[in-house]
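Record type: monomer structure entry
Structure origin: computed from sequence
Chain ID: A
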Amino acid sequence: MRHCSVQVRGLLTRDELDRYNALMDVGHFLESQQRYDLSQTVQKEIDRLIQPAIERLKEKGRERDRRDEEFMRQIERLRSGEDDDED
């Protein structure tokens, strides 16, 4: 079974996390019984389950990029304002 990243797990809701943990337990059990055909099905379900958290992580990244871009614009405005004062 493949775990998702810590960042993605951190963005799962409580219900999603409980379901994720239960599916991981089932998947590990199936693998221990060498039922890889069934564990693959469980892994696909896990992949679907974590998709909303992955989207939330992407949105956090986009929001961070927007804030960084705005910060850089403010720095540029301040610098250009300082250049005007030097004349």
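Annotation 1: The chain has one domain: 6-86.
Annotation 2: The mean pLDDT is 93.
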